[in-house]
Design a protein that fits this description.
By secondary structure, this protein is mostly beta strands. About 10% of the residues lie in helices and about 35% in strands.
Length: about 110
Amino acid sequence: MVFEKILKGVRGSGVEPMMISIARTMASFGCEIANDLREKGSVEIYFDREENKVGFKSTNSRITGFALSKEEKGSGMRISSKTLCQSVPVGQYLATKEDDMWVIKVPEIAKKNE
């Protein structure tokens, strides 16, 4: 009998250093991105609907920002955002630094509910 390995998915701890993973209930950040974002304690999320981009920016504000998970420097981190997870397709995205935020390009961003 020959066994075949089956991979179901990737957990937050398995995110590559320069990747952001969007799941059904949370976003996970690779350690390089996490180290930069955790600097101020919270992260703000921005949508560019015309370019299908999502930006993540470090902030001190607990009002406009999402609290970061308490993990050691050098490890990844997670945030829970229902709006983000319902607006962006599940997947892993390569992030680039644009000005003062980390940006991912996604296939689409769901329209706002008005």
